[in-house]
Protein backbone atom coordinates (compact mmCIF):
# COMPACT_ATOMS: atom_id res chain seq x y z
CA UNK A 1 0.00 0.00 0.00
CA UNK A 2 1.79 3.12 -1.26
CA UNK A 3 0.82 6.35 0.44
CA UNK A 4 2.87 9.41 1.33
CA UNK A 5 2.65 12.22 3.86
CA UNK A 6 3.33 15.35 1.79
CA UNK A 7 3.93 17.28 5.01
CA UNK A 8 7.21 15.33 5.34
CA UNK A 9 8.55 16.91 2.13
CA UNK A 10 7.37 20.39 3.14
CA UNK A 11 9.01 20.19 6.60
CA UNK A 12 12.25 18.67 5.21
CA UNK A 13 12.44 21.43 2.60
CA UNK A 14 12.02 24.27 5.11
CA UNK A 15 14.26 22.57 7.71
CA UNK A 16 17.07 22.24 5.13
CA UNK A 17 16.81 25.91 4.20
CA UNK A 18 16.52 27.21 7.79
CA UNK A 19 18.76 24.74 9.68
CA UNK A 20 21.75 27.14 9.74
CA UNK A 21 19.57 30.01 10.95
CA UNK A 22 18.05 28.15 13.92
CA UNK A 23 19.37 28.92 17.39
CA UNK A 24 20.09 25.38 18.56
CA UNK A 25 22.68 23.92 20.96
CA UNK A 26 23.76 21.12 18.58
CA UNK A 27 23.72 20.92 14.77
CA UNK A 28 24.38 17.17 14.43
CA UNK A 29 22.29 14.96 12.14
CA UNK A 30 20.58 13.21 15.08
CA UNK A 31 19.34 16.48 16.54
CA UNK A 32 18.22 17.50 13.05
CA UNK A 33 16.14 14.30 12.73
CA UNK A 34 14.69 14.88 16.20
CA UNK A 35 13.61 18.38 15.14
CA UNK A 36 12.12 16.92 11.95
CA UNK A 37 10.16 14.17 13.77
CA UNK A 38 8.96 16.52 16.52
CA UNK A 39 7.88 19.17 13.99
CA UNK A 40 5.88 16.55 12.04
CA UNK A 41 4.18 15.44 15.25
CA UNK A 42 3.04 19.04 15.79
CA UNK A 43 1.60 19.43 12.28
CA UNK A 44 -1.51 17.99 10.64
CA UNK A 45 -0.54 15.18 8.27
CA UNK A 46 -1.40 15.36 4.54
CA UNK A 47 -1.36 11.77 3.30
CA UNK A 48 -2.11 11.21 -0.37
CA UNK A 49 -2.06 8.09 -2.53
CA UNK A 50 -1.80 9.37 -6.09
CA UNK A 51 0.00 11.92 -8.24
CA UNK A 52 -3.02 14.18 -8.66
CA UNK A 53 -3.35 14.44 -4.89
CA UNK A 54 0.40 15.08 -4.70
CA UNK A 55 0.30 18.18 -6.92
CA UNK A 56 -2.79 19.55 -5.19
CA UNK A 57 -1.39 19.05 -1.69
CA UNK A 58 2.03 20.42 -2.67
CA UNK A 59 0.40 23.63 -3.88
CA UNK A 60 -1.55 23.90 -0.62
CA UNK A 61 1.59 23.44 1.48
CA UNK A 62 3.48 26.14 -0.45
CA UNK A 63 1.24 29.01 0.70
CA UNK A 64 2.71 31.70 2.93
CA UNK A 65 0.39 30.64 5.76
CA UNK A 66 1.39 26.98 5.55
CA UNK A 67 5.09 27.79 5.44
CA UNK A 68 4.71 30.10 8.45
CA UNK A 69 2.90 27.33 10.39
CA UNK A 70 5.61 24.82 9.49
CA UNK A 71 8.44 27.21 10.41
CA UNK A 72 6.77 27.88 13.78
CA UNK A 73 6.63 24.11 14.46
CA UNK A 74 10.31 23.80 13.51
CA UNK A 75 11.37 26.69 15.76
CA UNK A 76 9.35 25.32 18.72
CA UNK A 77 10.74 21.82 18.20
CA UNK A 78 14.33 23.08 17.90
CA UNK A 79 13.92 24.77 21.30
CA UNK A 80 12.86 21.45 22.88
CA UNK A 81 15.64 19.46 21.18
CA UNK A 82 18.14 22.16 22.08
CA UNK A 83 17.19 21.92 25.77
CA UNK A 84 17.02 18.09 25.72
CA UNK A 85 19.36 16.67 23.07
CA UNK A 86 18.89 12.92 22.82
CA UNK A 87 22.22 11.46 21.72
CA UNK A 88 22.89 7.73 21.87
CA UNK B 1 16.97 11.64 7.15
CA UNK B 2 15.30 8.44 8.37
CA UNK B 3 12.15 8.95 10.35
CA UNK B 4 8.95 6.93 10.50
CA UNK B 5 5.34 7.58 11.45
CA UNK B 6 4.45 4.63 13.70
CA UNK B 7 0.78 5.49 13.26
CA UNK B 8 1.10 4.17 9.67
CA UNK B 9 1.89 0.67 10.95
CA UNK B 10 -0.90 0.77 13.52
CA UNK B 11 -3.53 1.87 10.97
CA UNK B 12 -2.31 -0.63 8.33
CA UNK B 13 -2.46 -3.44 10.90
CA UNK B 14 -6.04 -2.68 12.00
CA UNK B 15 -7.18 -1.95 8.43
CA UNK B 16 -5.86 -5.34 7.25
CA UNK B 17 -7.68 -7.14 10.06
CA UNK B 18 -10.96 -5.22 9.72
CA UNK B 19 -11.11 -4.66 5.93
CA UNK B 20 -13.51 -7.56 5.34
CA UNK B 21 -15.79 -6.41 8.16
CA UNK B 22 -16.21 -2.84 6.94
CA UNK B 23 -19.42 -1.88 5.21
CA UNK B 24 -17.99 -0.30 2.06
CA UNK B 25 -19.24 -0.03 -1.53
CA UNK B 26 -15.95 -1.17 -3.10
CA UNK B 27 -13.19 -3.44 -1.76
CA UNK B 28 -10.54 -2.67 -4.41
CA UNK B 29 -6.95 -1.81 -3.48
CA UNK B 30 -7.35 1.86 -4.52
CA UNK B 31 -10.30 2.36 -2.19
CA UNK B 32 -8.33 0.58 0.54
CA UNK B 33 -5.43 3.02 0.11
CA UNK B 34 -7.84 5.95 0.15
CA UNK B 35 -9.26 4.70 3.45
CA UNK B 36 -5.71 4.31 4.78
CA UNK B 37 -4.62 7.83 3.73
CA UNK B 38 -7.83 9.45 4.98
CA UNK B 39 -7.64 7.62 8.32
CA UNK B 40 -4.04 8.78 8.80
CA UNK B 41 -5.07 12.36 8.08
CA UNK B 42 -7.63 12.10 10.89
CA UNK B 43 -5.14 10.76 13.44
CA UNK B 44 -2.29 12.42 15.32
CA UNK B 45 1.04 11.36 13.80
CA UNK B 46 3.67 9.58 15.91
CA UNK B 47 6.98 10.16 14.14
CA UNK B 48 10.07 8.60 15.69
CA UNK B 49 13.69 8.40 14.55
CA UNK B 50 15.20 5.52 16.51
CA UNK B 51 14.51 1.98 17.71
CA UNK B 52 13.95 2.97 21.33
CA UNK B 53 11.26 5.41 20.28
CA UNK B 54 9.81 2.73 18.03
CA UNK B 55 9.22 0.23 20.84
CA UNK B 56 7.84 2.88 23.18
CA UNK B 57 5.44 4.30 20.58
CA UNK B 58 4.36 0.82 19.44
CA UNK B 59 3.38 -0.04 23.00
CA UNK B 60 1.42 3.21 23.27
CA UNK B 61 -0.45 2.54 20.03
CA UNK B 62 -1.44 -0.98 21.14
CA UNK B 63 -3.66 0.16 24.01
CA UNK B 64 -7.40 -0.48 23.80
CA UNK B 65 -8.05 3.26 23.69
CA UNK B 66 -5.63 3.84 20.82
CA UNK B 67 -7.01 0.92 18.82
CA UNK B 68 -10.56 2.17 19.35
CA UNK B 69 -9.57 5.67 18.17
CA UNK B 70 -7.87 4.22 15.08
CA UNK B 71 -10.83 1.95 14.27
CA UNK B 72 -13.19 4.93 14.56
CA UNK B 73 -11.05 6.88 12.07
CA UNK B 74 -11.08 3.88 9.70
CA UNK B 75 -14.87 3.44 9.91
CA UNK B 76 -15.47 7.18 9.33
CA UNK B 77 -13.03 7.25 6.41
CA UNK B 78 -14.57 4.14 4.83
CA UNK B 79 -17.97 5.87 4.88
CA UNK B 80 -16.53 8.84 2.94
CA UNK B 81 -14.65 6.65 0.44
CA UNK B 82 -17.72 4.45 0.07
CA UNK B 83 -19.85 7.48 -0.82
CA UNK B 84 -17.19 9.04 -3.09
CA UNK B 85 -14.94 6.31 -4.56
CA UNK B 86 -12.06 7.91 -6.46
CA UNK B 87 -11.08 5.50 -9.21
CA UNK B 88 -8.77 6.59 -11.98
UniProtKB/TrEMBL annotation, chains A, B:
Pfam families: ComFB. It comes from the Bacteria. This is ComF operon protein 2. It comes from Sporolactobacillus putidus.
